[in-house]
Amino acid sequence: MKKVPYRINLTEEYIPKQWYNISADMIDKAPPLLIPNTRKPATIDDLSQVFCRELSRQELDNENAYIDIPEEIRDYYRTCRPAPLMRAYALEKALCTPAKIYYKFEGNNTSGSHKLNSAIPQAYYAKQEGLKNLTTETGAGQWGTALSMACAHFGIDLTVYMVKGSYNQKPQRRTVMQVFGANVIPSPSNKTNSGKAMLEKLGKDTTGSLGCAITEAVEHAVSHENTRYVLGSVLNQVLLHQSIIGLESKAAMELYDEYPDIIIGCVGGGSSYGGLIAPFMGDKIKKTHNPYFIAVEPKSCPSLSRGKYSYDYCDVGQITPLAKMYTVGSDFIPSPDHAGGLRYHGMSPIISKLYDDKLIDEARAIEQTGIFDAAVEFARIEGILPAPESSHAIKVAMDEAVKCRETNEAKTILFVLTGTGYFDMSAYGAYMDKKMTDYIPTNEELKNSFEKLPEVE
Amino acid sequence: MKKVPYRINLTEEYIPKQWYNISADMIDKAPPLLIPNTRKPATIDDLSQVFCRELSRQELDNENAYIDIPEEIRDYYRTCRPAPLMRAYALEKALCTPAKIYYKFEGNNTSGSHKLNSAIPQAYYAKQEGLKNLTTETGAGQWGTALSMACAHFGIDLTVYMVKGSYNQKPQRRTVMQVFGANVIPSPSNKTNSGKAMLEKLGKDTTGSLGCAITEAVEHAVSHENTRYVLGSVLNQVLLHQSIIGLESKAAMELYDEYPDIIIGCVGGGSSYGGLIAPFMGDKIKKTHNPYFIAVEPKSCPSLSRGKYSYDYCDVGQITPLAKMYTVGSDFIPSPDHAGGLRYHGMSPIISKLYDDKLIDEARAIEQTGIFDAAVEFARIEGILPAPESSHAIKVAMDEAVKCRETNEAKTILFVLTGTGYFDMSAYGAYMDKKMTDYIPTNEELKNSFEKLPEVE
User: Fold this and answer.
1) Could you tell me if residue B24 is inside a domain?
2) Closest to A383 (Cβ–Cβ): which among B9, B79, B86?
């Protein structure tokens, strides 16, 4: 067997021709989305009022394990995929570990993250269905950037409701979206009734919230012709598209007769981790392999490790379907942690179900300063500047590698490095200047939030 | 012949084992560097007072066409190279051109540019020689970032003098260097005698220049123990290291039986373009091929198109060796153009000689707003956010492709996309808000500057 290179750099023939739909292979399926007023399972027709029809179909598909990737989508993937699978030789050496560390690096495209994997199909299907406009919300901005790129490519107009606090704090991110032609609106805005109500209630100077931005984007979509709403995480369709991360990783490792013992990723809504683990989880369900899965989340927003497995709204405005998921409550407002992409109260229903069934073995919550310790160490050793979100996985991969040193086990560790930190330099600056603080919600705070969870029979 | 992919993604076996030294194959060599006070050609011993010894040797090597790349350097290259060679199918389609457009994309590493190609060997040789500290200057910040990364990897302390205009415009860029452990100082500073003199002369509100920052970094190096100065452009050694761009591009094109008819790149000091063209220029000198070479520069700093081919200082403080080059005069302070990496008064002596000998066929100067027109169009079509510097090459490649449409010629165009624009969002913002202006120096300004050129017999 030849030596594993530093960067396994597959040719475009290795771009999967089909996404892998883990739902089809799950013996116990995740409970369905429910329509809020009827509490009945959402149908394709229900979902199609907000989402594209094909995406609604994918959302509810529990039967087809493989779904063809249209050639036009593969053409776009060809410009930036397969993403490299890195062998972290330098990190292994620095940690003096016998572990073999691999990471799938999803930051090597202009969106700076894995978000493009789902933005491309979402924009593509919108175009196929003759839609002219899409709306979405963005917090940290990675999803908004990815979708702006995809919409520019497919000729779809895009309106992004950007949380006002981020809009003002991250003008660079806003400009990137504008360069790609998006109409970026700080939320709450006076463009929607829900935005006006929020401005009325909180005053002009409110920094807004992701919940409000979702509500505005959905309202905009349903109140305009030829317009639908798209979402960058949480949903089954997004995990489906993101399965390309896991499929490529598995194919690359197989070339070198490798299979991961431990599979690590950060979780906010669960899109990247759901995509990474999909084919490996399929193996675990079929009992051909038994990797150990660790989902990593911030201590400031501990949905898996301290949340409840319960039906909850996906947004603060409570206009979206109810999803059964690990949640700290849609009313819970996380502290302004810098890993904005992980500040979500809930969790992908698939990830939640797999965790509840103990197929995902462990959820580990880490405090922010520990994340940045790992991020800076990793950057200096591996020469990649990671996003704070991604650094959650880095931290735990490093911890596991150190355990291997102590136990002298040559385990194979795989994690996904979801994106780069170029637009997080103010957070890095705060860390370098030792001005970063940690925040952990109290039991009382969580209890108050749990009390507001909707009751579902 | 199989279809050229969107992204030619070579495996690490294609990383060259040797750099290509175009000087050895040039029939008429570039005139030597001269020591300022004696006006005698600089020797290895002279240069070694400022630079590492091996780098000084490489600087003066006119004989060895191929120079081995040490394995430790190739190991670092393996983490991010070969850089992809892209076929711009989407751009070709958008421009309705029969031209085939290829670009070498050097932005897919954390430094965001090609600068890492030379930063790695320069830090490596410093470590080999037992040095503990390096100093350098940076304009746009790409070189400083690349060198910070390389120094972090090899365990060398680094002090970066950053052009003050960029330091203020790009605080994120400064933080990146700090994350990688560098000490970043805005130039002109009061840390050096030359900095103090420049502040005195230009006032404390000066935005500085690359030339000023070079003087400070050199003074810092020669006045501290165990410290040497390194430079990211202009010098022969840098072009040597950057030849990896051209070698990889040529190897990738050969796999598909392609050879460029037109070869385009931006020029500031000439490092990326010198690297790109090296092997193709070798072919031209040996008369096996005859590609057409276009060097693109900003109208605000038109060294090749309006400068003089004359001996000049490489820095404002006039402490570096004299180089024969196209120059607008070391006293010329360019306007605060956003393409900071191209704000250099001079030009690589090799590029200058090749241009003077008409082996480089054309120098084309473009105004800033035209550059950003091209950058935004390219971003939307190709899904890459280019640096303003790189966009000079994009603009001319697009212009040449449009000419091909008009003449119906299926020419093969190759350019180097040197880096990404993530840290140039304030410039993009100014452009999107239509607040960007152009600046073209008057003949009078240039005449005044030429009058201060040093006299050399």
Assistant:
1) no
2) B79
